[in-house]
Amino acid sequence: MVDARATLARLIAERGDDYAAISRLIGRNASYIQQYIGRGSPRILAERDRRIIARYFGVDERMLGAPDSGVQTGKPAMQIVPRYDVGASAGGGNIAGDEHVAGALGFEADWLREHGWARSELGLLRVEGDSMEPTLSHGDELLVETAVELGREGVHVIRMDGALMVKRIARAPGGGYSIRSDNSAYPSWENVSPESVTIVGRVLWVGRVL
Asked: pTM of the entire structure?
């Protein structure tokens, strides 16, 4: 018999994850995996939960207690990306206060590696407002590479004057930043002092509900 709890604890430790993150990955409360591993409640993982976790770690479901019959194998490993409960305003600028992790999404590790993002610090933020139309729309989910410095021109999440915004930003000839809205109905700023802007992250990918 496979000790599924010990196996899961080992996988979490080896990946450098924590129990709360894996709980959020499967849509459970933050203490769910801790209770499963430490207290034996639930006795076994639900089939859906087991499948998601096995895919995330890139292991056979039987390592997590699945029976031999009906096991889905060959699923790619997943990388968990936290979703932050805060919007990056594409309008006038949303004041970000409570920036706690509200959930997570799993991205295929091979897909991230293919794009050169596997070793990046990643997070998900939502767009609020329409100042970046047509590039970004209200409600879009942004995959953001955090803890980066401004390199080439691109769409970035920034903090300016206490507001969290998503804008197109580039180096200006005078040594400052050019900060632009794609929607011409909204203002842009030229040669903004770098000391007044914090680069939160570079937008890598956008997802939206049709």
From this structure: 0.65
